[in-house]
Amino acid sequence: MLEASGFLAVNIPVGDHITRHGFNLDTIYTTLIACAVVLGMGFYLRSKVTAQVPGKLQMAWESLVGWVQEQVGSSLGPQYQRVVPLGVTIFALVLVANWIEILPGLYHNTDYAPAPTADVNLTYAMAIVVFVLTNAAGIRARGFGGYIKHLFRKPVAMFPLHIIEEIAKPLTLALRLFGNLFSGGIMIALLISFIPKFYILSILFTPVWKLFDMFIGLIQAFIFALLTILYFQFATEEGGH
Questions:
Q1: I want to staple 24 with a disulfide (CB 3.0 to 4.6 A). Which of 17, 43, 74, 135 is the partner?
Q2: Would you say residue 13 has pLDDT above 60?
Q3: What Cα–Cα distance (Å) separates residue 100 from each residue in 94, 181, 204, 220?
Q4: What span, in angstroms and rounded, lies between the C-alpha atoms of 72 and 233?
């Protein structure tokens, strides 16, 4: 529980989830919603795509794909265009997952559904997937011997730090996204809890914070996708980090 003192006392559950058999059900169903939205948008665009005058959704999607292609091309080269679908998917999924908390729902007595990315379990899972794929790409590019040699690169005495560096990548990737979305959820719950005491202020500032939180969600999706591409670059480049 997070509790403010004095006449502004309010209890806000921190890290509480709807659980059953050890699973966070709220994270699972909001993640499924995010996946359904991304897949639905993809299938819808596939059926409506046109070479004539594109709609706004098609233009937005083409801009996203173009940005990811540019980042992959400049960082990895044209031979790694297979990374583009991964980068696009990660950006779209993280963005939708971040924005879910603005939807109506019931969670901790607030009027908003929880963002699944505010649960460290999901961000860890996504970071582990990125970690496995980037290291697999590194082994494929260097060979297993070259990959091990890369960990023992000069100065050799820094080998333990190189191992820690590799382990820290998925940790920082996951915790950065989790921390920003988790704090945003706390702020929304805090503002809503003030409604009985400061009704006018809550009505004014809650929508403003929602918009700011959406902006933070967009930035975090951008960072997660960009770091994924950069981790592929670090894993496959010949000269090391």
A1: 17
A2: no
A3: 10, 11, 21, 14
A4: 9
Q: Quick check: pTM over 0.85? A: no
* Integer-rounded Cα radius of gyration of the chain: 21
Q: For residue 80, what are its two tokens?
A: 């790694």
| Annotated domain spans of the chain | 2-236
What is the structure's pLDDT at 34? 93
Among residues 190, 194, 210, which one has the least CA distance to residue 202? Answer: 194
Pairing assessment for the beta strands 19-20 and 2-4 based on DSSP bridges: unpaired
